[in-house]
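Hey,

The postdoc asked me to send both predictions to you directly instead of through the lab channel. I've kept everything plain text so nothing gets mangled by the mail client. Protein one:
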Amino acid sequence: MIVTRALTKRYGRTLAVDAVDLDVREGDRYAFLGPNGSGKTTLVRMLLGLVYATSGEIEVLGKPIPARAAAVLPSIGSLVEGPAAYRHLSGRRNLELFDAAGAGGRRDRTRRVEDALDQVGLAGIDRRPVSAYSLGMRQRLGLAAALLRRPRLLILDEPTNGLDPRGIREIRDLLIALNLAGTTVFLSSHLLSEVEQLGTRVGIVDRGRLVLQDDLAALRAATGRVLVRSPDAPLISALLDGQVVARDGERVIIRHADAAELNAHLVGHGVRVSAIEAEHRTLEQVVLDVTGHGSDRIGGPE
């Protein structure tokens, strides 16, 4: 769905994107992660033909960008940073005008607009002027515009920006449902907890370079340790001398590959186990391991 080869973008002496090789496959929910200033938004703009690459190649839906952008963009829904709208018009009217600029035709326009508003939770307030919208509502309107043409591919830059926790969950559920119905999703985000619940593949960029690209399940593999909570923590330390990595009150971290086997062993020796689970790497740990201490550039491109 998206392939880049040695994709590079320079702004004067600033190297914003540095030889990135993206591989986004059909059916992915691909999360593009990285610190502020790492080049995420610049790369998203290049995928959509809004910014030209300094060097390298881009293919979206099998066609070169920007050369074939006119053929590709009708099959893509996109949301990049703050979505633009006519502030004196209603959300519904904005979507009608946006739809009229496409090739969808007038006959089914009302239904397309209704469906998009309903999907993003704006159906009940669609006639207010956009000037009265909150940041989260404007973000929902931008996402509705991205969904109007039922795209094969969604390219989203921080799609939950400005939303409250309930809104974030609603958009997450919507993106998963769209993906299960056949839409490939590529999104950049800072919300690692959301990505862990939404993503299937992850690309991590740092200082313009793609430093990691893999399936999320592989990145969050078991660490070979088990987390145990027990009121008999001192007994565990005595019973498993040499296997206990750390102990803090009732919480014990034990070097062991099989939580079920360890549980049976502990219970068999009279240990009361309140909770037990295999330890997995968090996405936060993965990101911190492969990125620097900070990539913010004052005045530089995102």
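Protein two:
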Amino acid sequence: MAATRAKTKRAAQGFTWEGVEVLAYKAEGAAPFKDVTRQVLFEDPHLAAQWRYFEVAPGGHTTLERHQHVHAVMVIRGRGACLVGDEVYTIEPHDLISVPPLTWHQFRATEREPLGFLCLVNAERDRPELPGPQDLQALRQNPRVAAFIRV
């Protein structure tokens, strides 16, 4: 068996890494979001997962969506809040968030600072599902969720 070479990526400035491209979160107009970038930190065929870093600018938010796959999230920068299912949580560095399959979720940064988080997902995964009118009506039954979500 041939030896596999280790791959290393050095931290560059702030929350970027050498050789890792800062990408758009999604194609503009594909889904509602505000001021989010993503970086794919690890994607290896021997590891059936992808490790990504997302950064939400102050006042920004990710898309309200759900998937069949699970997300494992660790906040490493800033503060904000997230919706998971029908609960809104305040989040800060070192918090861990588990998003179960087919669970509505959305992340928001505070108005004062960016929110940065690592996200571990399956390398092969389904496309996001956006809420329809009936889904939004159901989510808005909870006043705290209604006040939180951005669509």
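Summary for protein two, as requested: The CA atoms of residues 83 and 142 lie 12 Å apart.

Thanks,
C.
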